[in-house]
Amino acid sequence: MATALRRWLELETVLDARFYRRVGIVSAVSEVDSALATAAAAGLAVETVEPEKLPHVTFPPDTVGVVETDAGVLLADRALRAAALWLARQPNVRLRPGCPVRSVDTGQVRITGETLGADLVLVAGGPWTRDLAGPPVTLHRQTMVYLRPPEHLRGWWETAPGVGRIGLDGRAWLLPPGAGTHLKISTDAACREVSTVDSADDADWAGRVRQANILSGMDAYEVVAVKDCHYASGPDGAVLTEAAPGVWARSACGGNGFAAAPLVAGQIVETMMEVAA
């Protein structure tokens, strides 16, 4: 991820946009010496912080915080808009916005009312990859809760870091508000497999997130939005899978997948060049 951060900062220059917020990221850990050694080996600037320094966040018992001072938050929408604008200016790229892909096969991509020829097809359809490229793709849904802090804590949250491995079970995380975004919380306990992005889901997952002991004094925070996010996972360790001759699929997507996107893109380019050769 340290390498990915360097790539993102390079992309800000290439795309002439700012979409990275350096707020610092705290991880709750129990094996502090091991965490510090790992950070040192990766060349990461870190320091420890006692949970008392983040009194509005619930740490698991017997843990302390390790702060990655250069880490931060990616504003995904801004990054994607900047990338699309950059691509639109490239003479060898043709974007087709508003043209849903109906199917893909060897040598062709079918969109609404038209079939496009192709030497190679790369499917990066996120949660819809399975519909186009078939299994093995597992679809997941995770509930995010967006909060407005109480008035007396808004100043504190303006300078707060992101925090992970929190809640009493160590499975929760939060991203601080800022740059037009709300305080966002979730937990791995609110992640589940679903058959499609439209599958019915009657359980109160937002309530489970709010009850996950992520923040102290949770009742003082106003819920401003609840969103179900979807991501997909493919075969373990596989950046690409060949769905058909000449048709390759990037199945994995999600928060970590987006953070590592520059590294994944490099692997995809190498694979496609090998295939084309």
Structural class: alpha+beta
* Termini separation: 30 Å
Using the 3D structure, state the CATH architecture of the largest domain.
2-Layer Sandwich
Gyration radius (Cα, Å) is 21 Å
Contiguous uncertain segments of 5+ residues: none
Assign an overall shape.
Answer: globular
Elements, N to C (H/E): HEEHEEEHEEEEHEHEEEEHEEEHH
Q: How many distinct domains?
A: 2
Give the CATH level 1 class of the largest domain.
Answer: Alpha Beta
Integer average pLDDT:
92
Largest sheet: 9 strands, mixed
The percent range for helix content is 25-40%
Supply the number of helical segments: 8
**How many strands in all?**
17
CATH topology grouping of the largest domain: D-Amino Acid Oxidase, Chain A, domain 2
Tell me what portion of residues adopts beta-strand conformation: 25-35%
CATH superfamily of the largest domain: D-Amino Acid Oxidase, subunit A, domain 2
